[in-house]
Design goal:
mainly alpha, Growth Hormone, Chain: A, 19 helices, 2% strand
């Protein structure tokens, strides 16, 4: 093996990607990403009906959203990343979307808690294939100076999906309250909460067919053998290539992990702050926070990508990490204000949430792009899977947990949730800023080596 890297693509083709079709690719993959977040968030809206029908405890419900989904989603992402680096990425996405959509729909017909647990496991396994494959495809479809905007457009799926799930939540609560059962073709009479899984799951089967219209892009920046042919790397060789770039990879991974702690904590607990502090109803909270997340998060994601691209064009090779670090510092300051607004003004609290989610969204898309610019093609999927493994493992475990721990064992007050959340979000985003800033120098060196 040699470290010689093809600058344009593995075949030596110097032609730039056609960005018109590339944006179509981004559009389709963004729909997939949006759908994945709706499918993973929908469970949190159905806690009451699930507990009632299966006589489940809070711990069992937590396992459905935690162990059943998150553990398998996180673990499967690692082998999925290796498949992405070796096989057709479009086909991997098709299989993943089809499988997780089928498993989401299967939740509607689960006859007991074990069946629902297995179906949620399936959702996690299917969704684990999407991000490594989609990010790799987008990276090979755009030049570097447009990659931040492309990745950020894909990344808004996080906020579109989460926002739509919150908006849908109010409707679900109202429907279950007013119409306990529905009669559907094929399925017959079915509980309304079960029908929700069908509504969000079955369209994914059509989306999987839509993904088949995408073309597999040529792979760029591949490691070449001495005779100019792209080589296949063993696992040990892959680890060696990533190991040479461990500082920028670790910087991005840790930064995104602390961002994920803030994101998952925000998504779970921000509605509860409004309900506990200002006695808001579930419908009112879902409507307001749905729009805050959907609009604020999407605009923040797009802004981060655009600023990253402008910085790269102006010669700042570490532009993505600069944007991520500065927006994280600003986010820490904004979320610190939550400690003062909670319990005093609903409008001010919503304002903090809106500004905070805007800043919280800025680093993700640009950092996805940044990770791809310093890694050869043969390891990009696996490196991103490793980054997401670290980010999701830390984010999914600590994000929802820390505000609850602070509230239960430090402040010991239901009304102090805003204070607990403010501390969690401000500290985690500050740690994210430190992590992003730490890797900037090494990142510039590796970016220059791979993109002369």
């Amino acid at each position: 093996m040699t470290d010689q890297v093809a600058a344009p693509d593995a075949s030596g083709n110097l032609a730039k990607p056609k960005t018109g079709y590339a944006w179509y690719t981004v559009g389709v993959l963004t729909v997939c990403y949006t759908l994945s977040f709706i499918d993973r968030q929908i469970l949190s809206l159905l806690v009451g009906p699930i507990k009632a029908e299966f006589n489940a405890t809070d711990t069992q419900v937590g396992l459905l959203g935690g162990l059943a989904f998150s553990l398998f989603y996180t673990l499967v992402s690692l082998p999925a990343g290796r498949l992405v680096d070796r096989f057709n990425r479009r086909n991997i996405i098709v299989a993943g979307v089809f499988f997780w959509s089928l498993m989401t729909a299967a939740c509607a017909v689960a006859r007991g808690y074990p069946g629902l647990f297995l179906a949620r496991m399936g959702v996690g396994v299917g969704e684990a294939t999407l991000a490594p494959a989609a990010v790799s495809m987008i990276s090979d479809s755009f030049p570097n100076e447009k990659l931040g905007s492309a990745m950020s457009t894909y990344g808004i799926g996080i906020y579109l999906g989460s926002g739509l799930a919150l908006l849908l939540g109010g409707l679900v609560v109202e429907l279950v309250t007013q119409t306990p059962t529905l009669t559907l073709p094929i399925f017959g009479e079915i509980a309304s909460w079960r029908a929700t899984f069908l509504v969000v799951g079955l369209p994914g089967l059509l989306v999987a067919l839509w993904v088949m219209t995408l073309k597999e892009p040529a792979r760029k920046r591949a490691i070449l053998s001495s005779d100019g042919v792209a080589v296949r790397l063993s696992i040990s060789e892959t680890l060696a290539v990533i190991g040479k770039r461990w500082i920028p990879v670790a910087s991005i991974a840790l930064g995104l992990m602390f961002q994920a702690v803030a994101l998952y904590g925000f998504m779970l607990w921000s509605p509860a702050v409004l309900q506990r502090s200002f006695d808001w109803s579930s419908q009112q909270t879902g409507l307001v926070m749905g729009f805050v997340v959907l609009i604020g998060g999407s605009l923040g994601m797009l802004s981060g990508g655009r600023l990253s691209d402008r910085g790269l064009v102006s010669g700042r090779r570490d532009a993505a990490l600069r944007v991520a670090a500065f927006s994280s510092v600003a986010g820490a300051l904004v979320f610190a204000a939550l400690m003062h607004t909670q319990g005093t003004s609903a409008l001010a609290t919503v304002g903090v949430f809106a500004c905070g989610v805007f800043l919280l969204a800025m680093p993700a898309g640009s950092c996805y792009a940044a990770s791809q610019m310093v890694l050869p093609n043969q390891v990009r999927g696996q490196a991103l899977a490793l980054i997401l493994f670290i980010a999701n493992l830390g984010g999914l475990t600590m994000g929802p947990l820390l505000p609850g721990l602070l509230n239960d064992f430090v402040f010991r007050s239901e009304s102090a949730l805003g204070l607990s959340l403010g501390i969690t979000l401000s500290v985690s985003t500050l740690l994210a800023a430190i992590s992003f800033g730490w890797g900037r120098r090494e990142y510039r060196l590796h970016h220059e080596a791979l993109n002369p």
